[in-house]
């Protein structure tokens, strides 16, 4: 029963584009309900210590105030889960739990009023006294705690001693923030004893589980809606404090409550990417083949993360160093450093984006040390299996990515000597890095209903999965249109509703690979059932005709993807090769990225428009990671400095060069029926190391600390002149 396959992988329109450009797509903060009340928060003015007194008298007298919650009157909540699954963010304690303060900006009071302005005004009139204790917010200023160690392989120390070539380098990255364009927002509404929540979340079922526990309700008494989400990048996985408090306040008031975080509250109270310090020790034969690799990471966690009983959250940097290159002797150790900051969390390609920054930077240094071309060094260390588990990749085409990328970029014309290429006042440099991200999928289900109206057959596709703006609406419409041979406009997709068939969190680039095969499976069930009503196997009959013969008004089926069904003898991993050109005017120290070429193997692409958008978006995210982004905290008081979009710098159009992304036509059929692996995160993974390598090629200066700011580069060049 082969289907037409007309659309899979083709360009095609974004099916949600019309709703978005006309403002009809309704995000959480757009929800308006009768009698809606509005929340505002007062954040702690200290980073460490406790609240002594809270005087709410002035706030209570302010206009429009309906309710003020503090730790004195927030009331009881059920026992909340705090595992790797559903979890409360950013603080593992429920909000307004007690007088303790663990980070600056932690909510100490919530005000609900008739209007957002009245709520904010009243919050400003609350008077709080504190007993501060000194805070520590710099990862280099606090003691580290060793996490349980993962098994290594071989004997790295002996191999390092015996090797003819060795390298020992320290790479750092600062606290960075996902900063989604849409601030975190919730509307909570009690309908009788049932809780209805409109939330900007990556995971309606995670929200549902947490809120059901908090209020002692059965899961089906809680409904979560997230039809549209305006970006998240990991920051909307967990259920946030403002979501829980909106539900508490709505119940107390008997009115719906809207809670929209201000931009500085997003930056101050939603978990960021942890700061890292990564020591990489490499040892190699003279031809560049690695014989030992040791990776020692420190990343920050929150002081109140409950370590060692609970996972304090560690930035999983070693996920890439352990598997990428063939290397017989390997060890990774990870320390966490508790700081008076909100608990860090996931941010686009957690682990890969930070781990490859260090590993691929070190590989470029090794190439320079050996006088081997950096691309050639990667080829000499290429591994066709996961170097740690030893499992062969079911689909692996990294060499082809390198080859095509090098050709598109013109890598062969590179003069390896630093400062050898100039254009006008600028030094020009070329660098490259490997990109990689695991192929992830989780148990997921999709319902497809085939129906008919006066214009013919149409399908309704439904799942609880959430489209974060990545193109899931389009991907599912494409898969169903293809499998049922319907025009794209005749497929209607419903997402982000906890009552629909269950789907996993949108995270780890997993959702298309989880849901697209499930949608296809549902369609194939429908086809099988309806095609049985043909008069003979060659008869061409419209779906409407077959439905009529079957005596059915409509027909529906649920398709499922089971992560357990993936063959275990294989590893599933996406790869890419990223090439970057920079221009550096030495007097200014400013790095302009002028060209990027990325060639990726992400398995079967379902929709080219959305995939391009994801890969380019990942690369732009990487430009920010490398050149601009750092969330700085004042070391004396722990205050996030410049915590808004004028102080926390993100790439703008003028920072974004010509980006050439392409992908191989390489389905991974062992992974799922479509052979697709997901493309949401891989785009960012190699960017930082590729830019740093290009900067070194341009200037001769190796910057190992992100972001690569003009100050750092000028300091490096000044140091070079003194030598
Ligand atoms: Mo993400 S950082 O895959 O939620």
TrEMBL record:
Pfam families from the entry? Ald_Xan_dh_C (PF01315), MoCoBD_1 (PF02738), MoCoBD_2 (PF20256)
Domain named Aldehyde oxidase/xanthine dehydrogenase a/b hammerhead: which ranges?
22-134
- The yes or no answer to whether the keyword Oxidoreductase is present is yes
Q: Kindly give the SMART domains that the UniProt entry links to this protein.
A: Ald_Xan_dh_C
Q: Which domain of life is it from?
A: Bacteria
Q: Which residues form a coiled coil?
A: none
Q: Keyword set for this entry? A: Molybdenum, Oxidoreductase
List the protein's name.
Xanthine dehydrogenase family protein molybdopterin-binding subunit
Q: Which organism is it from?
A: Nannocystis radixulma
